[in-house]
Design goal:
The chain has about 190 residues and is mainly alpha-helical. About 75% of the residues lie in helices and about 0% in strands.
Amino acid sequence: FNLQLWNNYFHLAVAFITQDSLQLENFSHAKYNKIQNKYGDMRRLIGFAIRDMWYKLGQNKICFIPGMVGPILEMTLIPEVELRKATIPIFFDMILCEYQRTGEFKKFENEIILKLDHEVEGGRGDEHYMQLFESILTECAKQHPGISSLVESFVSLVKGLLERLLDYRAVMSDESKDNRMSCTVNLL
């Protein structure tokens, strides 16, 4: 097992699907349709490949926690529903890997909270992502009763944080200083 090779693969693949020139939702409707018809959404194909390779790592997955949390988060925040549905479950697998190794998933939790703040501040994330994140991880947790209550608490924490971050991002363009201050206090 060559850790550096796998690490390079994941980082390169995530860099590919997150590059600006592939963010189809930023294009006009006509340009979007033309690219979709000619090439399809390459982000989805690469995202599925990342997902498949992640699950093939076996016991070596733990080597990528917390280092791959940020890149995977960046990938799941791409506003493409099928990509999100396919890749958000990687987070539960990361939780499970760390929990089975250490009896907790604090490294994962700390990293996702840190990276989520950075990504939402950068303009990524939306209400739909928050709902999908909650439903997918809650559903995954139901299949593992021993860890489900911990995962549900984590999901609740992340959902609350994401709500506040999205509110904060929305209110930053607001003229009212009171609204901005209230949102900042809520976030803190």
